[in-house]
Design brief:
Elements lengths: L1 H10 L16 E9 L15 E9 L6 E8 L1 E2 L2 E2 L5 E7 L5 E6 L13 E7 L4 E9 L2 E8 L6 E9 L2 H21 L1
Antiparallel strand pairs: 1-2, 1-11, 2-3, 4-5, 6-7, 7-8, 8-9, 9-10
């Protein structure tokens, strides 16, 4: 808090506008971004969406911790755009390799029926590496699956911490204060 008081004094910012320091028990936001390609045909149908590109944001105690809640999803498969109300989470599935799973909760997370708008993405929470991605579509029969065991399935995959709005606000206030200070001294 001393740092915030010093910043407030230097730049004339009200302490009421400064963010509070996050506590150790507070969750942080994390974003998984991915692109998966090279889905083989299923039941005679080519993959309706290939490549699959998406992102999912969630709250957790840490980057290697179980998911507490979902914040957003950006994923459309064969015309179906998913919402956070359609998401579920299964931690610590046995392997190989052991992994966590985010998926549609239409039939239960981790269960996909033919001709339903459902999906899952699996990753190793410890190494933050992808494991597999599977989806089905209500528009046509088939299951389209890709895994790390197939040569070019995951063309990109990352899990990163999302900056807190309070951190962004603090940086904005500091930059604003520096601009005001420079105008006054000019």
């Amino acid at each position: 808090m001393k740092t915030f008081k010093l910043i407030a004094m230097l730049f004339g910012v009200s302490l009421a506008l400064l963010p509070t320091m996050p506590g150790s028990a507070r969750a942080a936001s994390f974003m998984m971004s991915f692109q998966v390609t090279g889905f083989p045909a299923s039941l005679g149908n080519p993959a309706p969406t290939d490549p699959v590109t998406g992102s999912i944001v969630w709250e957790a105690a840490g980057i290697h911790s179980p998911i507490q809640s979902f914040d957003s999803i950006n994923l459309t498969l064969d015309g179906h755009t998913y919402s956070i109300n359609e998401l579920g989470y299964l931690p610590d599935l046995s392997g190989p390799p052991p992994h966590d799973l985010i998926g549609g909760n239409l039939n239960g997370t981790g269960i996909i029926y033919n001709q339903t708008d459902d999906f899952w993405i699996g990753w190793d929470r410890n190494s933050l590496q992808p494991v597999d991605f599977m989806y089905a579509s209500s528009q046509r029969p088939g299951f389209w699956y890709a895994s790390i065991y197939e040569p070019v399935s995951f063309t990109s995959f990352s899990i990163t911490q999302v900056p807190e709005p309070s951190t962004i606000l603090l940086v904005s206030l500091i930059l604003s204060g520096l601009r005001k200070r420079n105008r006054v001294s000019s």
